[in-house]
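Lay summary. Proteins are chains of building blocks that fold into shapes, and those shapes determine what they do. In this project we predict the shape from the chain. Here is one chain we studied, written as its sequence of building blocks.
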Amino acid sequence: WRPARCCVREGPAVRLARSSLRSVSDHRERNAAERERMQRLMARLSDEDLHRDADDGWTVAATFAHIAFWDRVSRARWEAALRPEGPGFVSYPQELIDWVNAAALPQWRSLAPRAALMDALSAAADVDALIERLPTPTVDEALATGRARMLDRSVHRRDHLDRIERALGIP
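And here is the predicted shape, written in a compact code that computers can read:
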């Protein structure tokens, strides 16, 4: 096992997300596009595909469970940040993300594969719906404080969907 490379806060994908959000609707459109891509990919996957290795011990199904988990974390972070008495935007170190991924991987691998897929779609729809309702000043604050990935969930999804497609030989 090695730490998931997906969750790095800074890098080309994060810089792209931050620099390419030109309007309030950009992240909404990208989130919807990657959620729809995820749904189309899921429809093509066989039970055998779900058990295949996607990346260093991460099965395809476990990767979808991982996507669901981090979309749910993003939603919980938004809910906390939006509460009047809440802590605002809270950051955590990359090492924590790596530890969480390491600790959760055995559980993600043990989930029923089709349940992991449904959870990923549900979590994506839930966080995307919350993000779509954010007022413009909140979006501006998130961008100004370097939290583009909290708005643009497509970055995380795209990274994993690309890996799954490569692992399965899907063009």
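What the prediction tells us: The longest strand covers residues 53-55.
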